[in-house]
Amino acid sequence: MNHRLKTHEKCIKKALNNPKTDFDWLLDYHKTWIAFMQHERLIHLLVTMTVALVLIMAFIVTLMVEGLNPFYTMALDGILVILFGFYIVHYYQLENGVQRWYVLYDEIIEKARDKGENHD
Q1: Which of 8, 67, 75, 79 has its CB surrounded by the most CB atoms within 10 Å?
Q2: Model confidence, pTM
């Protein structure tokens, strides 16, 4: 996903610097990808929150339930902490990438206005 964010960003920046660019098409294309990434962001937020809830429940089970082998419950907690860490990093990259795309969106509109195309 992070690779897709960066690749798209490079393509948009290249198109912004090309005087022959059709900004109507570029704006539509970029808006479509922003919509895809907003959906992706929502899904990853929901998954991250679900993993966080499961992690909290696993910690509670580890602390409260007697008679369970602590090795297994702590191993589960460790696995969930690592999984949650990866989800946080991924969501952070996704969120920051989409925020950069919003800036690119504004730049496309500005270039379109400079070129005389009508975007509000």
Answers
A1: 8
A2: 0.80
